[in-house]
Amino acid sequence: MDFNGSSPFPEGVISFLDTDLYKLTMQCAVLKYFADVNVTYAFKNRTPDKKLSRAAFQWLQIQINKLGNIALSPDELRFLQSTCTYLNNEYLDFLKDFRLNPREQVTASFIAKDDTGSDTDIGEVNLVVKGPWVETILYEIPLLALTSEAYFRFIDKDWIYDGQEEQAYAKGMRLLEAGCIVSEFGTRRRRDYHTQALVFRGLVKAKKEGKKNGLPGEISGTSNVHLAMRFGIPPIGTVAHEWFMGVAAITGNYETATKTALSYWVGCFGEGVLGIALTDTFGTPIFLKAFREPIYPITPADQMGLADGVVEPETSANGSEKAKTFAEVFTGVRQDSGDPANFVKIMRDFYAKEGIKEPKTIVFSDSLNIDLCLEYKKIAEEAGFKCTFGVGTFFTNDFVHQSTGHKSTPLNIVIKLSSAAGNQAIKISDNIGKNTGDVATVEKVKKVLGYEEKVWKLGDEEHRWETDDDQGK
Question: Model-level pTM?
């Protein structure tokens, strides 16, 4: 594929690896432990004023069906074998013959507000995914990227590609000059594939320039495995909320689910591998109760009695060498909702109380721009943390309307696990605006866990990227 601006612009998803790395790592773990579990996923548009036309929806349906034609190529397999060495052979063998089956597993619907039958009718789109977890886990990223592309291909068309590479280069240089370590996390809400490729060209140029000039920061990688392969940059990612949500729904025990999910993660990949833990699925305080627990090997009995969690083996209880805790083994944590400054304080107090003195890393990934990266870097480093940044929409969907110069606002859309093994799957997070799933189940779990509701002043999900002030930051 030629990324030059003069070449035809590709549409849709062009590669099996045109997805985020953590979907592959989670699929690997699901194959190992939950290969027979069926799940459902639900779509939510957090910007409900942004709707599709019938023509946009029809294009989206065609692109969704095309996902069934994509397979892992021999070159892509070799890339995973050589670069992602934590993916086991059983999983890589599974991928060789794997195909998505969107005609059977994805239901897309369109309800027009005033239905005239015209291609220009505007309406609500809904996407539902059903099937084995080990198969359907790969739909989320392409479905989100395609929905965003449909909107900006048919509805908001007052924009051009010109300047995207240069803009990304300028952003990259500012971050490098400030000493930030940054990864590109923008696949799910990108304007389209061509935009992301242009952006990444700009970031790679900044990376080379920064290295040449001895700048203190680093462009460390991208979550998009395909672009990592094309540009020779490391793919970046560990785990998403989905892993914790799925384990909790399968076990039905929210009090032990976080520890069980962490235990199975370590059981699949080993201690210290893919070691950035996501803290906010059921609220960070709940997560930390499990994070301080010792790691025990998973036994057949644990797998038979999932609802009971992973229990301490008798040999450990009888005085053998003390097991390390998750907090000791994991490299650090990812902050994805709520107040980052408060999160840093909570984590500093936690590690101090646990007697952990080695430097730990915080990955910030919640709706970042340059100013926020610099602000959070200062806060984290003053507290003794290393920090890195996963920057998404600010890189891959930062445009202005040509006619007015005002911001062309991205969609805020998500696809979340909605059930697993017949049980509701929910997420609470550290900000009420990011609660997802069945409302009754959310409230029930909050009571069981003793969850304290949190509202963050910058956590308005419906208006995340709507101000022109974000431009150039």
Answer: 0.93
Nearest to 299 by CA among 286, 312, 288, 287: 312
> What own/partner pairs with CB < 8 Å and gap ≥ 24 does 84-87 have?
84/21, 84/24, 84/225, 84/235, 86/25, 86/269, 86/270, 86/273, 86/274, 87/24, 87/25, 87/28
**DSSP letters of 84-138?**
-TTS-HHHHHHHHT----HHHHEEEEEEESS--S-TT-EEEEEEEEEEEHHHHTT
Between 56 and 14, the higher pLDDT residue: 56
C-alpha to C-alpha distance for 239 and 246, rounded to whole angstroms: 12
Angle at 47 between CA 195 and CA 429, to 5 degrees: 95
Q: What is the pLDDT of residues 384-406, one digit of tens each?
A: 999 999 999 999 999 999 999 99
- Tell me which residue has tokens 């919640």: 366
Q: Is residue 423 within a helix (H) or strand (E), and if so which, with residue range?
A: strand 423-424
pLDDT at 298: 81
**Which amino acid is residue 153, in one-letter code?**
R
Alpha-carbon torsion angle 273, 274, 279, 281, nearest 10: -120
Q: Is the pLDDT of residue 461 over 90?
A: no
Of 282, 296, 276, residue with least CA distance to 253? 282
Q: In the predicted model, is pLDDT for residue 5 greater than 50?
A: no
DSSP conformation class of 20: B
Instruction: Give the pLDDT confidence of 197-213 residue by residue, as tens digits.
Output: 999 999 999 999 999 99
| Locus of tokens 């003794």 | 384
Structure tokens at 234: 């490391």
